[in-house]
Amino acid sequence: MVAIAPDKVHAQDAQALFDEGLSDMKAGRYKIGCALIKKSLDIDPRPGTEFTLAECFSKAGKFASAVELYDRYLAAYDTMPADQKGDSDQKARADISRSERTRLVSLVSWLTVRLPASAPAGLLVTKDGEPFPRGLFGVATAVDPGPHVFTARTSDGPLIEQRVDIAAGERRILSLQVAGSAEPPDEVVPPGDTEPQPDKPERKNSLMPWVYVTGGIGAAGLITGAITGGMLLSKRKTIFSECPTRRTDGAHVCSEKGLEAVDAAQNTLAPVTTVALSVGAAGAAAAVLLFVVGNRGESTSSSETMKRTLPTIDVGSGRAVFGLTGSF
Question: In the chain, what percentage of residues exceed pLDDT 90?
Fold first, then answer.
């Protein structure tokens, strides 16, 4: 009779469990398949088994457990000899582990378990039947999505059971109920209601530079129009005093000074006054419009907004038109 070394028996048992679990995993029976592969890993901890269990957990929706095992495989891969690292199977597993870990991180759920301040020192807490370390109280801990059962028990008190169901990628806080505690238990709440929210950045008018530009143009136009308008009124008085005689055809007979005043009024002051006042009014209206549009809280930066939103002014004979080119 040939004796078989215990470690060889264990290796055979581990391989049998692994093969059976892999078959169940491929058939979509993830719960039993993952359990069998985990038993195989407990008996014979091999990097390849860790990788396969990570794959099984990923398919079963146990994202936190999958990420942990991918990390463990990558840590083992880093310590492998060069010839083993060069193996095509091991290299492929490492590549898959990195990409899958990156994909699953956002799906990991986080649960913070809190104890009341009056909880006794000898309190025993379990999570899904396993002891929950006291060092994890108050710390956001990665957990798999789905239901989890917590129990809390004092040495002389009743067992209190609490259940929490957490979604993929969710962050929640669970305040444990403890027998004899003077504090009322907190509810399980999403982190958005309990964690401090970042201050909202002050909204800035991204079009403010153009408000200043167009406002300045408007002010300059109004000032220019007021000055030339005053000069036009002065010339009007000169025209009335220097062109007193009316001919039979209705035209005025003017002195040389009167003719100069008529020429300046018709060809220079009147057109300049009209255009300046038009530009001034358009610029003022444009400044108000840009101020209102900019305060709507656009999501793009001010530099991007200025690149795609530009004011345009069209000045013609006796008119001025303001507009905006771009998108809002």
Answer: 40
Residues in the chain: 328
Instruction: List pLDDT tens digits, range 145-159.
Output: 999 999 998 877 788
Q: How many CB atoms lie within 10 A of CB 226?
A: 14
Whether 200 maps to a domain, the answer reads: no
Q: What residues contact 245, with CB distance under 8 A and at least 6 apart? A: 252, 253
- What is the DSSP secondary structure assignment for residue 317, as one 8-state letter? T
Q: Which residue, chain included where needed, has tokens 């009209």?
A: 274
For residue 176, being part of any structural domain is answered with yes
Output the pLDDT for position 12. Answer: 84
**Interstrand relation of 245-246 and 252-253 (parallel, antiparallel or unpaired):** antiparallel
The CATH number of residue 97's host domain is 1.25.40.10
Average pLDDT over residues 302-323: 49
Domains contained in the chain, number: 3
- 264 inside domain: yes
Domain finish residue from 192, 217, 247:
192
What contacts 166, CB < 8 A, 6 or more positions away? 109, 111, 143, 145, 146, 148, 172
Residue range of the domain that includes 127: 109-192
